[in-house]
Design goal:
This protein is of the alpha/beta class. Helix content is about 65%, strand content about 5%. The chain is built from 18 helices and seven strands. A five-stranded mixed β-sheet has the order 3-2-1-4-5. Helix 11 (about 290-305) packs across helix 13 (about 330-350). The longest helix is centred in the middle third of the chain and has 39 residues, at about 245-285. It is globular and about 65 Å long.
């Protein structure tokens, strides 16, 4: 029997979400069709669909008027309608879903990389998952803000100080608005990941307070976790009569969690964290060459060690968070070091083709594209097949790149984009030497990998 999955959601998340879910379940029962319905209401996600269930499902019904993370259904037949349609005609939606044809699977490198990223996302749990949710939602603001600030410098480093000019407008958009939202969004979506929708308001407010106090991204992270766990505790332990249950996510949890988070940020947490951030910022801005090299080696090696895993993300989060404190050197080192693993593998396949199968050489070409776009995960298929040779080689190359980038004083205002942000004026400081750092790490990765690798024929023997 074909398994059908469904997701229901309405803007308020109080009534239509659950009416639609009930209608679909009832109609499926009458037709003896296996179905699981995920609801995204005011209290958060209930009966959540798993990666395995999605993979095994025949088709998905999305009956929603809000975002339901539709990209997780990529490759699956989807019937998408307003939530009211599922209440009016659930039987028709089920018939339409059953008549859909599944897409043919693909096993090229890009698909393998995407699959690996999905599997890693699925295995994330606990604080790491919550932190990554906050970081991923903050990134668009960092990218847009950093590049707009860089563009304002095209008119002169001090041009933005003259009110009414285009430079001033760009600086106001990038620095005054986008960057001002970074920490609140980080905190808000950490709390959202923990407590779902009821955690969003206290998280945003906690993050805004962290920004106003000067506690930076570290304060935002603490505020997000604090708000999230307070909201979740209230969500789990406040019990109301069924007819008053709607008041909990809309009134009680936001009010109490926001008040508790705000008071703790102002009276307990904010000032000590501000002192830590001030000290860290001063240290990073006055780094000597030896410390800069050591920091670059550490960040570079972390970027290549697990290629998009927790260690990689720790280095990336550290660098992105420092952008809010106007510290741009670690960001440059991290992005450069994240580009060299797939680029180095691609170069290795060119320099010593006899050490790689035809499939690996073809995959190397695709890895080069991922490398220039700063998608470190492009090297995962190679590392998975031969970890004891590939990982040491990529770590060596990335550590060198990180060290050189820091020594050369390279800076980067955008936290992503690979080579596509390099031509943007003022996005990268010391552009020429920054490119040298990336090339050097790529060459070292390729040389070390080819030294460690044996010819394909020898391996087969």
């Amino acid at each position: 029997m074909k398994q059908i999955l469904a997701v229901t959601a309405c803007p308020t998340g109080v009534a239509h979400t659950y009416m639609a879910a009930e209608s679909l379940a009832k109609a499926a029962k009458e037709k003896q069709i296996p179905i699981k319905v995920e609801t995204r209401g005011a209290v958060g996600v209930e009966n959540e669909l798993t990666e395995q269930e999605i993979a095994e499902a025949h088709a998905i019904i999305i009956a929603a008027d809000t975002d339901v993370l539709e990209n997780r259904f990529a490759g699956k037949p989807v019937v998408k309608v307003p939530v009211a349609q599922a209440i009016k005609n659930p039987a028709g939606l089920l018939e339409e879903a059953l008549s859909k044809q599944a897409a043919a699977p693909s096993d090229d490198l890009l698909k393998q990389v995407e699959q690996a990223k999905k599997q890693r996302s699925a295995t994330r749990s606990g604080p790491y998952k919550h932190l990554m949710t906050g970081v991923s939602n903050m990134l668009p603001l960092v990218v847009a803000g950093g590049l707009l600030i860089a563009l304002s410098f095209v008119f002169g480093i001090e041009a933005f100080k003259q009110q009414g000019t285009l430079a001033a407008a760009l600086m106001d958009i990038g620095g005054g608005a986008a960057f001002a939202l970074m920490v609140p969004i980080l905190a808000g979506f950490i709390a959202f990941s923990i407590a779902e929708k009821p955690g969003l308001a206290p998280g945003l407010v906690g993050g805004m307070l962290a920004s106003k106090i000067g506690a930076g991204f570290l304060g935002g992270i603490i505020a997000g976790f604090l708000a999230g766990y307070v909201a979740k505790w209230l969500k789990d332990y406040i019990k109301l009569p069924r007819n008053l249950e709607g008041l909990k996510p809309i009134l009680l949890i936001p009010l109490i969690a926001t008040g508790v988070t705000g008071l703790l940020m102002i009276y307990v947490i904010g000032e000590p964290v501000k002192a830590i951030m001030d000290g860290l910022t001063v240290w990073l801005k006055t780094l000597g060459s030896t410390n800069a090299v050591l920091l670059g080696i550490l960040l570079g090696a972390m970027m290549a060690f697990d290629m998009g895993g927790p260690v990689n993300k720790a280095a990336y989060t550290f660098a992105v968070g420092l952008l809010a404190s106007d510290v741009y050197g670690p960001m440059a080192a991290v992005m450069a070091a994240g580009m060299t693993p797939p680029l180095g593998v691609w170069l290795a396949t060119l320099l010593a083709p006899k050490k790689y199968t035809k499939e690996e050489r073809d995959a190397g070409k695709a890895a080069s594209v991922l490398g220039i776009a700063f998608i470190t995960e492009g090297v995962i298929p190679f590392a998975a097949a031969d970890p004891f040779r590939v990982i040491p080689a990529t770590v060596a190359g990335s550590a060198l790149t990180g060290a050189l980038s820091m020594v050369f004083g390279a800076t980067l205002r955008a936290p992503h984009g690979g080579i596509f942000v390099l031509p943007i004026p003022n996005a990268v400081g010391h552009l020429g030497m920054y490119a040298v750092s990336i090339i050097a790490g790529t060459v070292v990765t390729a040389i070390v990998l080819n030294i460690l690798k044996k010819p394909v024929a020898a391996v087969q023997e």
